[in-house]
């Protein structure tokens, strides 16, 4: 049986070692299993109303944005509450900005 002070030191050492081990594991997993998101999504999300009403038929605004940047949806005005200037800005941005594959989209109002 270890003296009390040795048990305390041992507990501290074990906790620190576990902390270091799990930090390394998190760093490795975040590097190799990171989900790469299309960089255009953040810009389009900043222009979409963000009401999350579902009137576009998608599960919230991010659903419509995902459909737009993946090419499954081609009309920005599928969003029923977006103002014309923001819709035009999204259309122009997506038609002019290439995605990770180097291709631009063909998006209309
Ligand atoms: S209609 Fe527009 S505001 Fe409503 S969820 Fe769809 S994208 Fe968002």
Describe the structure.
55% of the residues lie in helices and 0% in strands. With 109 residues, it is mostly helical. The chain folds into two domains: 34 residues; 57 residues, 3-methyladenine DNA Glycosylase II, Chain A, domain 3 (Orthogonal Bundle), CATH 1.10.15.40. Helix 2 packs across helix 3. It is elongated. It starts with a helix and ends in a 13-residue tail after the last helix. Bound molecules: iron/sulfur cluster. The site of iron/sulfur cluster has 16 residues, from helix 3. The site of iron/sulfur cluster (SF4) has 16 residues, from helix 3.
Roughly how much helix do the residues carry, as a percent range?
Answer: 55-70%
Query: How many DSSP E strands?
Result: 0
Distance between the termini: 76 Å
Tell me the β content: under 5%
Rounded Rg: 24 Å
The ordered H/E elements are HHHH
What would you say the CATH architecture of the largest domain is?
A: Orthogonal Bundle
Shape: elongated
Low-confidence spans: none
The CATH class designation of the largest domain is Mainly Alpha
Structural class assignment: mainly alpha
The CATH homologous superfamily name of the largest domain equals Electron transport complex subunit B, putative Fe-S cluster
CATH topology name of the largest domain: 3-methyladenine DNA Glycosylase II, Chain A, domain 3
Mean pLDDT level: 94
Number of helices: 4
Largest sheet composition: none
Count of domain modules: 2
């Amino acid at each position: 049986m270890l003296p009390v002070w040795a048990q305390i030191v041992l507990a501290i050492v074990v906790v620190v070692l576990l902390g270091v081990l799990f930090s390394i594991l998190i760093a490795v997993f975040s590097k190799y299993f990171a989900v790469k998101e299309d960089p255009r999504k953040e810009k389009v999300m900043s222009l979409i109303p963000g009401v999350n009403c579902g009137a576009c038929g998608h599960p919230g605004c991010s659903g419509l944005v995902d459909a737009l940047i993946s090419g499954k949806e081609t009309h920005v005005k599928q969003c029923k509450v977006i103002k014309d200037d923001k819709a035009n800005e999204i259309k122009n941005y997506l038609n002019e900005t290439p995605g990770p594959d180097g291709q631009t989209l063909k998006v209309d109002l």
